[in-house]
């Protein structure tokens, strides 16, 4: 009798769970709508329902980031040089919020703890016959993955952003040449290029936007250009800023300097594209050998093998 009641009890528990979850979801949606209407009455503005529904999730995400930031403050390096170096890498990857460094360090610590702790829990609950050596190796390996995995992801993100920046730079330089030769000053030309490349070159546009904001805030052009090169971390942009600083210091024509450097950057981008095209035959060799040649062998030699097998079978009879 008890064995027959177990499926009924499980079904009842599942029904009650789904019912409570539905009531909780309805209460959440109703509370969000009431909160949105109350905010509209108090502030006199219209609040979208989607924003009201997403507000608790946004708040929870912000609390999680704050927790990662507090944890990163405790477990991160304390040397100023190391902190500045890691913060610069995050800036070069496009992560430029004030607490990005702390959040990144806290995320590494939580990921290492989660992976290592999950492995230990699986070892003592599921893989109970695992040896101590394998357990220690797995624990250390997963903890290392949690620590160095985000670093590897950050390195790839920095390299990808630098490559995109190097592809967008020649077009930006061409527009700068046109604007400067049309009579604009360098600051006005940078601002104009920033607006023109918002869609086709978002990364170089954001860098030029920061440069424009620094110049408007009263920062010297030399320091603003050096900050641009440091944020980008690109050798070509570093050389460009050095040329612009020297042209500004010695009174050299900025338009001529930009034109010469623009031609060199365009040739370099073409050479990089030709290099990628030259590597394609080598990269296609592995899938050719692994997938295409076996299929060709089956199609060409398959009928001959089948005929030979039939012939030997007939001879044996």
From TrEMBL:
The chain crosses the membrane at residues 6-29, 106-126, 132-154, 282-306. It is found in: Cell membrane. It comes from the Bacteria. InterPro entries: T2SS_GspF_dom. It is a multi-pass membrane protein. The keyword Ubl conjugation does not apply. Keywords: Cell membrane, Membrane, Transmembrane, Transmembrane helix. Signal peptide: none annotated. The keyword Glycoprotein does not apply. Residues 173-301 form the Type II secretion system protein GspF domain. Its main location: membrane. Pfam families: T2SSF. PANTHER family: INTEGRAL MEMBRANE PROTEIN-RELATED, PILUS ASSEMBLE PROTEIN. This is Type II secretion system protein GspF domain-containing protein. It comes from Pseudodesulfovibrio portus. The lineage of its organism: Bacteria, Pseudomonadati, Thermodesulfobacteriota, Desulfovibrionia, Desulfovibrionales.
């Amino acid at each position: 009798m008890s064995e027959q009641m177990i499926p009924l009890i499980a079904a009842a528990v599942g029904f009650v769970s789904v019912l409570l979850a539905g009531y909780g979801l309805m209460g959440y949606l109703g509370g969000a709508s009431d909160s949105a209407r109350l905010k509209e009455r108090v502030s006199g503005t219209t609040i979208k329902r989607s924003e009201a529904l997403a507000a608790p999730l946004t708040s929870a995400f912000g609390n999680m980031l704050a927790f990662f930031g507090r944890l990163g403050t405790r477990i991160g390096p304390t040397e100023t040089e190391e902190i500045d170096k890691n913060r610069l890498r995050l800036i070069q990857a496009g992560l430029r919020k004030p607490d990005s460094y702390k959040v990144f360090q806290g995320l590494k610590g939580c990921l290492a703890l989660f992976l290592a702790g999950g492995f230990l829990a699986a070892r003592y609950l599921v893989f109970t016959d695992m040896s101590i050596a394998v357990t220690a190796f797995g624990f250390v390996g997963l903890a290392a993955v949690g620590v160095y995995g985000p670093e590897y992801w950050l390195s790839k993100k920095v390299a990808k952003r630098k490559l995109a920046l190097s592809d967008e730079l020649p077009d930006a330089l061409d527009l700068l040449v046109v604007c400067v030769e049309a009579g604009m000053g360098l600051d006005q030309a940078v601002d104009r290029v920033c607006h023109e490349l918002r869609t086709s070159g978002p990364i170089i546009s954001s860098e030029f936007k920061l440069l424009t904001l620094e110049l408007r805030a009263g920062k010297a052009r030399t320091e603003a250009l050096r900050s641009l090169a440091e944020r980008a971390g690109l050798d070509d942009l570093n050389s460009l800023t050095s040329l612009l600083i020297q042209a500004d210091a010695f009174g050299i024509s900025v338009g001529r300097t930009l034109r010469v450097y623009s031609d060199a950057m365009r040739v370099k981008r073409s050479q990089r594209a030709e290099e990628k095209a030259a590597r394609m035959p080598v990269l296609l060799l592995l899938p050719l050998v692994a997938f295409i040649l076996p299929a060709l062998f089956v199609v060409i030699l398959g009928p001959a093998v089948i005929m030979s097998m039939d012939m030997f079978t007939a001879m044996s009879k």
